[in-house]
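Give me structure tokens for this 77-residue protein.
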Amino acid sequence: MTHVTWDHNPPTTWTAMMDGQALCSIKRKDIGGWTAVWMDERLWPAPPHLPKAMPQPTRFFSSLEEAKLAVEQALSA
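Here you go.
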């Protein structure tokens, strides 16, 4: 299983680290919620309600916990 560590840059940014390399940044949005942005070539799949949408490097989440879990799951796949 992949081991992801989280680097916190208060107050709004969390960075997923693996083997000392930053892979994804999660940032709190002023309007509420969080965005997760891949720092490499990875893309988030299109959301189920928009099956024809193109994969994107950024994805919106309603909570920090949800975003962290999605990043960890994507990195372990």
